[in-house]
Design goal:
globular, Rossmann fold, binds zinc ion, single chain
Length: about 160
């Protein structure tokens, strides 16, 4: 199941990627609605949006689309979970920024990690595992941020 989200739902898109779902977005541009519809159609993605008019246009074109009702992220995730019967379980699978697959960093590639100023030296020395997005270069690890995510998931989705 693949999604495409409008720019109002960027946060939802990031969370869906965190749960391993291929969720693309688009950059700010002219005729965003047309671009979203084209991409949804050509890539076989489910369009998620809070724009009723856009959803109507999608359905008319035979594109699978879902109108997100809540403005609030936890509720949005619950809506999508219910609508598509998907599992909300965090996985190290996909870059939450650009939606590309991420992969484990090999010991020989630690230079890639060291070059990021947001990775602290202490982590490099503690044997932490790292993942990297080859497309945008973002580095991931299961630190405090990951713990917070797990707590949120436990609290709201399990
Ligand atoms: Zn990326």
């Amino acid at each position: 199941m693949k999604f495409i989200a409008d720019r109002m739902l960027e946060r939802l898109a990031r969370w869906l990627r965190l749960f391993g779902y291929d969720t693309s977005g688009i950059k700010k541009q002219e005729n965003e609605d047309d671009t979203l519809l084209e991409l949804a159609q050509s890539e076989g993605r489910i369009l998620v949006s809070r724009d009723e008019e856009l959803i109507r246009r999608a359905v008319k074109k035979g594109i699978r689309a879902y109108l997100v009702r809540s403005p609030e992220i936890i509720e949005q995730l619950r809506e999508v979970q219910k609508e598509f019967n998907i599992k909300l379980e965090p996985v190290m699978d996909r870059c939450s920024l650009c939606n590309s697959p991420i992969r484990k960093v090999e010991p020989s590639e630690m230079g890639l990690v060291r070059s990021k100023d947001y990775v602290y030296l202490a982590r490099l020395e503690s044997g932490t595992e790292f993942w990297i997005c080859d497309k945008c270069g973002q580095v991931y690890w299961q630190g405090k941020h990951w713990e917070n995510i797990m707590e949120t998931v436990k609290k709201y989705f399990q």
